[in-house]
Amino acid sequence: MGRRSRRRSREQGATAGTPPTTTDYRDEDGNVLTLRDSLSPGSLRSLERLDAKPAASAEDRWERRMELLFERLVVRWEIAGLPLENQKELLGRYRMASSDERRGVREAIARHLRERHPEVEV
User: Fold this and answer.
1) Among residues 114, 115, 119, 111, which one has the least CA distance to residue 26?
2) How far apart are CA 27 and CA 50, in angstroms?
3) Fewer CB under 10 Å: which end of the chain, C or N?
C-alpha cells in the first residue's frame, strides 16, 4: 500500500470500503439505471473545470458534461435483463445508445441531481 492509498484510507475513515448508496430509476421498458447518490468533491471540481474550458460549441460542452456526469454517477445499467456494471462497458453502451435511450438516461440524471445535488446543473 502506497503513501497516497494510506492517506486516502485515513481521510475516508470508517467509510473506506463501504459501497456508496444508490438509487434505481426504471424506464417504461423495464430497464433500470442505478445512480450513485453522492458526487465526490473531485467530481464537482471536474464539472467546474469542464465549464471553464472553451469548447468547440455549447452543444459539445453539454455533451462532455453529460458524459462526465454519466461516468461519475452511473454504477449499473440493466437493459433487457442484462446488467452492465463495468465502467468501460457502461460508457461504451451509453455512447452507442439510441436517442430515446440517451434521453431516458439524461432525464434520470437530471431528476437525480435535482433531488440530491440541486447545486449541480445539467
Assistant:
1) 111
2) 29
3) N
| Residue 77: all three cell numbers together | 445499467
Q: What one-character DSSP code corresponds to residue 15?
A: G
pLDDT of residue 58: 80
Show the beta-strand stretches assigned E in 1-122. 22-26, 32-36, 74-79, 82-84
Chain centre distance of CA 103: 15
> pLDDT tens for residues 44-56?
888 888 877 675 6
CA separation for the pair 30, 79 (Å, rounded)? 8
The predicted-structure confidence for 57-83, as pLDDT tens digits, reads as follows 888 888 899 999 999 999 999 999 999
Q: What is the DSSP letter of 33?
A: E
**What distance in Å separates the CA atoms of residue 108 and residue 105, rounded to the nearest whole number?**
5
Residue 10 to residue 16: CA distance in whole angstroms: 9
Which helix H or strand E contains 79, and what residues bound it? Answer: strand 74-79
